[in-house]
Write a structure and sequence with these properties.
2 strands, single chain, about 45 residues, elongated, alpha+beta, 1 helix
């Protein structure tokens, strides 16, 4: 379960959190960052 902060249309925190899946289903505004780190394969 991943909880995210809900923001308004001006990116202000609303003080509410919700599960990521629910936020996406409801189309709510939220902040999220994904960082992928890839290591080059060495023999």
């Amino acid at each position: 379960m991943e909880l995210l902060d809900i923001v308004d249309e001006n990116n202000n925190l609303t003080g509410k959190t919700e599960e990521k899946e629910v936020i996406h289903k409801k189309g709510l505004y939220h902040r999220e960052v994904a960082v992928w780190i890839k290591k080059k394969y060495q023999n």
